[in-house]
Amino acid sequence: MPRPLWTGAISFGLVTIPIKVVSATENHSISFHQYHREDMGRIRTRKVCEVDGKVLSQDEIGKGYEVAKDRTVPVTDEELDRMPLPTAKAIEIVAFVEADSIDPVRISESYYLAVDGQVAAKPYTLLRRALERSAKVAVAKFAWHNRERLGLLRVRDDAIVLHAMRWPDEIRSPETLAPQEAELDEGEIERAVQLTESMALDDISGFRDRYREALEELLAAKSEGKALPAAAGGEEEEPGKVMDLMAALNASVKAAKETRGEDATVHEMTPGKPRTRKKAAPAKKETAAKKTAAAKKQPARKTAARKRTAS
């Protein structure tokens, strides 16, 4: 198990669940150092005091808040730890809501909550089962890194996951970003819907970081003195170039079908001419077999009628 980032408890009404918090994600990005081009010497960042010019170590550095120009109030870690916050050592559940009611833009980092000792097993399982059966997620408050935060608890497999969330006033309004209303043809909309259907997937676990793989190949080639990998081909679109939207949609649907190994035949659609769906062919009145059977039964009916008349 990864090293715990925080230890505390989940406060669930009057139920307390001792837990340890571990990161739910890993960073596989490749990092670079800064260096001096002339002699390949590493560039280091140093923390220097503005008053005496002394380079400081981490244990010599404290926190402070500038309340006015040339006036800073020092704040210690002990003072922050003693702040009267109910969420200082607990993840306090404050509500249960429908998962669909949470805007994904508010979700930030993700963490797994692991039990801290055998005593936590039963209440942990109780909370997990309650979330599963109610089909809801829990909204919680917790205090990390000198600030109170909002969180979301949900179930993933057999574990409870904590998603850190942004406060409502931290989300910018998108109103000024929306483009002016544009006229769309019904055929363009229908082809765009077809594109979404042709690109639909039930599982996205197969995606890979192509950029990192290419970067690893580049670094391996440079370290071994080999030729660098060839650049990927492809034409670049001119910025601001007006595109034929329907032609782009038709080509996209065809490419998506080819990628999935489906029939790549695409019936071209043009703006103003939405695809017409064929009506079902009307049912035939009678099959040849039924007509033959009816013809055989007809003489029998006539013979029976003659007998009744003679009697």
What does this entry look like structurally?
The chain has 311 residues and is of the alpha+beta class. It has helices spanning 77-81, 121-134, 186-198, 210-223, 245-259, 288-310; strands spanning 6-12, 15-23, 63-68, 71-75, 90-98, 107-115, 136-144, 147-156, 159-165. The strands form two sheets. It has a seven-stranded mixed beta barrel with strand order 1-2-6-9-8-7-5. A two-stranded antiparallel ribbon has the order 3-4. α3 (186-198) packs parallel to α5. The longest helix has 23 residues, at 288-310. The termini are far apart.
Shape: extended
The helix-and-strand class reads: alpha+beta
Helix percentage range: 25-40%
* Subunit arrangement of the protein: single chain
For the secondary structure, the number of strands is 9
Helix and strand run: EEEEHEEHEEEHHHH
Low-confidence stretches: 276-311
Largest sheet features: 7 strands, mixed, barrel
The averaged pLDDT comes out at: 80
User: In what order do the strands lie side by side in the largest sheet?
Assistant: 1-2-6-9-8-7-5
Number of helical segments with 4 or more residues: 6
How much strand content do the residues show?
A: 15-25%
Span between termini: 102 Å
Rg is: 35 Å
List keywords for this structure.
alpha+beta, 27% helix, two-stranded antiparallel ribbon, 311 residues
Q: Short summary of the structure?
A:
With about 300 residues, the protein is α+β, with helices and mostly antiparallel strands. The protein has helices spanning about 75-80, 120-135, 185-200, 210-225, 245-260, 290-310, and strands at about 5-10, 15-25, 65-70, 70-75, 90-100, 105-115, 135-145, 145-155, 160-165.
